[in-house]
Protein 1
Amino acid sequence: MELRGLLSRAEGRDMPLGEIVESIPHRGHVLMIVLFSFPMSLPISPPFLGGVFGMVLTFLAFYLVIGRKPWMPHYLHHKPVSYRVLEKTIEKLSWAMRYLEILLKPRLLFMTKDERLWRMHGAFLLFMSVILALPIPMPAPFTNSVAALPIFLTSLGMLERDGRMIVVGYFSTLLCIGYYLALILLGREAFEYVWHFFGW
């Protein structure tokens, strides 16, 4: 997997976000979106990374839409990602991919071959990345996960040319919408009650 080369390049040191993005030119846009959305899509995701990774994903998705090499502002380009976070993310993603590759295969290829649809997918990723990057006024469990999951599934489908997975990614947005609506209507206390009830 191309991402494993990052660990060798890092040599145990923290890596700036810009260096991570620039180190994978082949399929870089989509592969980087898979990398940065994966830790956010896990049930227990680091809350402090949601805003930063959300901004990175926003820039990557924007340049995916316009079909140009990603560029990031100085602040994000030089922001370091700790080697421990990078190593754990790549190890978990590699483990997950071993199982996901059983499900993933090229199908509904028109969804990845058509340039207009490709840009539409990019626009969808851009929209969801902005949602992920927005600060949530009342923090609650899974706020990062439900926004990042559609990004991860859709970009994974684009990477593996699996149109069915892209469709799943689109439909997983319903989970995000439902969660945020419930959060607005029920409030954070209801989610915290469920969280503690199950001992999480």
Protein 2
Amino acid sequence: MTPKILKELKKIAEERQIKTDPSHDFSHVNRVFNMAVKIGKSVNADLDVVIPSALFHDTVVYRKDSKESLNESNESAEVAGEILAKIKGYPKEKIEDVKTCIRECSFTKGIKPDLLESKVLQDADLLDSTG
């Protein structure tokens, strides 16, 4: 991933992450991003998939007591796909994998990820949740 694309994705992610809940604010996203990149490099995961997955995995978040919260992973995946489709130079063939990673991220729903990149993202998110 080029530095220009990375910078653009980070900017968009930060602008979208306006939640004040510390478990879903931009600091959380940034910590998950940093851990996902570190883990991803160590297992030779596709960082073109890991990076946007980490940046947008919580781009749609509802209160946990809301029925809408059951669909936030799917909604975040769709939003991420729309964003990536507009990014000049981002490999369009990787968008579906990014969406899969985001859909498979939730460890609280008991999801067992299939993709290596999904496992990386889920592990990074879980590590951040444990402090």
Protein 3
Amino acid sequence: MVTLRSFQLSDVPWLVRYLNHDEVTHHITDAIPSPYTEADAHWWLDHSHSTTLIKAIDYEGQLVGCISAEVGDFEYNRSAELGYWVGREHWNKGIATAAVHQFMKQLFEQTDLVRLFVSVVSVNKASIRVLSKNGFSLDGELKMASFRQGKFYDEQLWSLLKPEPLN
């Protein structure tokens, strides 16, 4: 069973393990330090406890990933960018799909957000599948939008609007 929870001190070794795996970090933000240390994990725990918009993804009682939302500033304050990752050994189990579904439901029910979006590297087909399964729509493709490890990547922008309440 997939659940979302706050990060705990016992998650530190798992964070270090997962975030030092190149396949996990290859297509997510370069803001994650490399190599990822215990000090980085402790900083993340402290940071995550300052907001309700960062959650640990738990699968069968163990940390397997992270999901978060970054709310926009000023006129974009009703929109948030989602970010998520799952440890390599837990891929292809539907965990990310379930976590995104739970988190977007919480965000739409418990906040005043009306739009969620994700910018995903266009070669990251697994993440694109997760978004599609959760009802996100492709808004467009941004050519050569990111540069990492000496290579440019196109990115796709996917979004989901809060459903209208049924009357």
